[in-house]
Design goal:
Order of helices and strands: EHEEEEEEEEHEEHEEEEHHHHHHHHHHHH
Strand content: 15-25%
Strand order of the largest sheet: 5-6-9-1-10-11-12-13
Helix content: 40-55%
Shape: elongated
Number of helices: 15
Radius of gyration: 30 Å
Length: about 475
């Protein structure tokens, strides 16, 4: 029998703010000693009152706007009660029926084409403490407790593990463009759960959903969902019944394992948070937040492609906002110097990306500005230096921060286009390599490339390659 999976995603994203959600403790707890970033409020001590972090509210609304959400004029915080030790108060301040954002969507590119994933809600809450399990004991670090956490919940519009993976990649790209979250799953800054069920293909009767937790990487998301789909199909085909439970992903054994019975909304006993007033969102304020949302990666990629780049290059360059801004600046300068977008894309995705991948560098600290890059490309375009020498010059620019023209002049790297000088080099190479010369005359075209290489070597890569090829053919064919 054929089955179809139905998947919804819940993503928790730590918001980049200076302080925690409801107190003044620093939210930058990385590397800090356990329980160093705490106060009576985030430890849930009696009498301590919360105060909402405005920057976190704004970051959540900007995210909702980027996802096409409706921003209701009114929202509130709620208490979500459950008895786990990672909540020092015994409850979490979250949002339930009146979230900050609702009814959005995210278009995702999949192998089957574009799919629209509806966003049910984007709401704001506080993060929990970190539990560290030891034999016979569990330790608690409250540094993370109270850090602003945004939850993005989809409708059950995803159908495959690959679509879920693509959705997460697209969502992380937007969060990074907005500057509201690092999106680093390996650091816990972005965490997700999948609600997975299966039904007979073509059926309209949904199966029982199972929540899958402990998805700490993009790879584990894809693997866990694929495994859980097959597990549920196996249960059904063996005559069993899928139970609504919470499963965890066992990274070591690559399987989902039972954790606990699934809670329902009534188990959390939601009620309005009495220590925080409802929020009324001024229309002018929302308009200002909407204006602060940058051009998003999909639109940037489309603009790059329309400028003349290959679509694959356009998407690659639009993936990171800092890279996209660098490329935008290079394109503006390139238009003034009649250098096309495809050429600039080739140099960035080739030489610059190679350099960035070799160390701990990033585009923001790279010593070659967009203008310097275009100046180097322009020397190649004008024939002042060859393509190969241009790559060599750019490598030195990246190492030293010097300008291309300075390097070319200091090292005498100008391209040799003097026909008489090159003819002498060509004739010398033919005389020194009679075998390959005879091979070419005998119809072996590859021999010409060998001879080309010898001429370039003799001229230290400075010969005009097009002219060398022309002279070689002329001399060999005589």
């Amino acid at each position: 029998m054929a089955y179809e999976a139905v998947i919804g995603m819940e993503v928790h994203a730590q918001i980049l703010t200076g302080s925690k959600m409801f107190c003044a403790c620093s939210a930058d707890y990385a590397g800090a000693p356990p329980n160093a970033h705490t106060c009576p409020t985030c430890l849930g001590m009696p009498g301590a009152l919360p105060t909402a972090n405005k920057a976190a509210v704004e970051a959540t609304i900007r995210t909702g706007l980027a996802l096409g959400c409706e921003i209701p004029p009114y929202s509130k915080f709620d208490r979500k009660n459950y008895p786990y030790p990672d909540l020092p108060k015994g409850y979490q301040i979250s949002q339930y029926d009146l979230p900050l954002c609702r009814d959005g969507r995210l278009e995702v590119e999949t192998e089957a084409g574009r799919r629209r994933v509806r966003i049910r809600r984007v709401h704001l809450e506080e993060d929990t403490a970190k539990l560290i399990h030891r034999p016979g004991a569990t330790l608690i670090d409250y540094n993370r407790a109270g850090v602003p956490l945004m939850e993005i919940v989809t409708e059950a519009d995803i159908r495959t593990a690959d679509e879920a993976w693509q959705y997460l990649l697209s969502l992380r790209r937007i969060l990074r463009y907005l500057g509201v979250c690092t999106g680093n799953m390996e650091d816990g800054a972005m965490r997700c759960e999948a609600n997975v069920s299966v039904m007979l293909a073509g059926s309209h009767e949904l199966g029982t959903k199972v929540e899958v937790k402990n998805l700490n990487s993009f790879r584990s998301v894809r693997q866990a969902i694929a495994y859980e789909i097959e597990r549920q199909i196996g249960v059904i085909e063996s005559g069993g019944t899928v139970q609504q439970v919470t499963m965890g992903w066992d990274e070591e054994n690559h399987r989902t394992v039972f954790q606990r019975s699934k809670e329902f909304a009534e188990d959390y006993r939601y009620f309005p948070e009495p220590d925080l007033p409802p929020m009324v969102h001024d229309a002018a304020w929302i308009k200002g937040l909407r204006a602060s949302v940058p051009e998003l990666p999909e639109a940037v990629a489309a603009r790059f492609a329309n400028a003349g780049m290959r679509l694959e290059d356009a998407r690659l360059l639009a993936d990171d906002r800092a890279v996209a801004e660098y490329v935008d600046a290079a394109l503006a300068i390139g238009r003034e110097r009649e250098i096309d977008a495809a050429t600039i894309a080739n140099w960035v995705t080739g030489e610059l990306f190679r350099w960035l991948s070799e160390g701990t560098h990033d585009i923001a600290t790279m010593p070659v500005s967009p203008e310097s890059l275009v100046s180097c490309i322009a020397l190649v375009q004008r024939g002042t230096i060859s393509q190969g020498v241009g790559k060599e010059v750019l490598a030195e620019m990246l190492d030293t921060g010097r300008e291309a023209a300075q390097i070319v002049e200091a090292r005498g790297l100008r391209q040799i286009s003097d026909k008489d000088a090159l003819l002498e080099a060509v004739q010398g190479v033919i005389a020194e390599n009679p075998g390959p010369a005879d091979d070419y005359r005998g119809g072996k075209e590859a021999a010409l490339n060998f001879l080309m290489g010898q001429v370039m070597r003799a001229t230290r890569g400075q010969a005009n390659a097009g002219l060398v090829r022309q002279l070689l053919r002329s001399e060999l064919d005589r």
